Amino acid sequence: MLYTILCYNSEEIIGSWTKEHDDAVMAKLAVVQDRLAKKGKMGPVARLRPTKSARTLWKDREPHFVTDGPYAETKEQILGFYVIDCDTHDEAIEIARELGRANPGGAFEVRPVSVFFPGTVSES
Question: In terms of CATH, what superfamily is 2-109?
Fold first, then answer.
């Protein structure tokens, strides 16, 4: 089963990191990612740019309209996500714990995910 690990933290905290600190955290995460990739557990990983670069398409009225910024009005924002292949939810939680040791703070939301491929009718 595929799981996604959604990475949340305060953009203020992440934004205050020096390039050296950010590089060190990313290097620690790369160690975990490389190990998972060698086991065939690692899917796509994405790091989202700051929420100030986001736009939200509002579909609740016609015509639809676009506003600056993300939809969520919370202190912590989603910063990125992992897609991992695990046999159980517990295994996915353990991977989230390992990623958390490499990048402390914030939260990880672990959720099963279905992947859909355009042009096909089956779900993976």
Answer: Dimeric alpha+beta barrel (3.30.70.1060)
One-letter amino acid for residue 26 of the chain:
M
Cβ contact 39:32 at 8 Å: no
The one-character DSSP state at 115 is -
- Residue spans of the domains in the chain: they are 2-109
Cα–Cα–Cα angle for 81, 84, 86, rounded to 5 degrees? 145
| DSSP secondary structure letter of residue 48 | P
User: How many residues does the structure list for the chain?
Assistant: 124
Integer angstrom CA distances of residue 30 from 42, 46, 76: 11, 13, 23
In angstroms, rounded to a whole number, what is the distance separating the alpha carbons of residues 8 and 107? 5
Cα–Cα distance measured from residue 79 to residue 89, given in angstroms and rounded to the nearest whole number: 22
pLDDT tens column, 42-93: 998 988 888 788 787 777 778 888 888 766 556 667 888 999 999 999 999 9
Secondary structure of residue 8 in the 3-state scheme: strand
Mean pLDDT, residues 27-43 taken together: 94
Is residue 98 predicted with pLDDT exceeding 80? yes
